[in-house]
Amino acid sequence: MKTRITLVRPLYTEKMAGQQEALNKYAFQVDRDANKIEIKKAIETKFEVKVKSVRTMNLSGKMRQQMTRQGRFSGRRPNWKKAIITLEPDYKLELFDNA
């Protein structure tokens, strides 16, 4: 297995907060080259939980424009990958709990 950081950062949105409570799902930004098996192993070893399923999606970066003295500068944010993790019913991530 390649040695690299698979999990980049957790994603916490209003939609994911609802799914976290109701469906036991969590979202993470992951390395673009990581596959579902590597993501599952990384979650299970880092948080000591049992993962039921992993769903991934590749997202394209947003277009950005900036006005400068020389004119308009167009750029693009980098493409990234999102993984939605479903945990087994007995497990919970304490990552987002404030209590």
Class of secondary structure makeup: alpha+beta
CATH class: Alpha Beta
- Count of alpha/pi helices: 2
Characterize the overall form.
elongated
* Percentage of residues in helical conformation: 10-25%
Describe the structure.
The protein has 99 residues and is an alpha+beta fold. It has one domain: Alpha-Beta Plaits, CATH 3.30.70.330. It has two helices and six strands, in the order βαβαββββ. The chain has helices at residues 14-23, 36-47, and strands at 7-11, 25-30, 51-59, 63-68, 71-76, 80-87. β4 (63-68) and β5 (71-76) form a beta hairpin. The protein is elongated.
Please summarize what this structure is:
The chain has 2 helices and 6 strands; from the N terminus they run E-H-E-H-E-E-E-E.
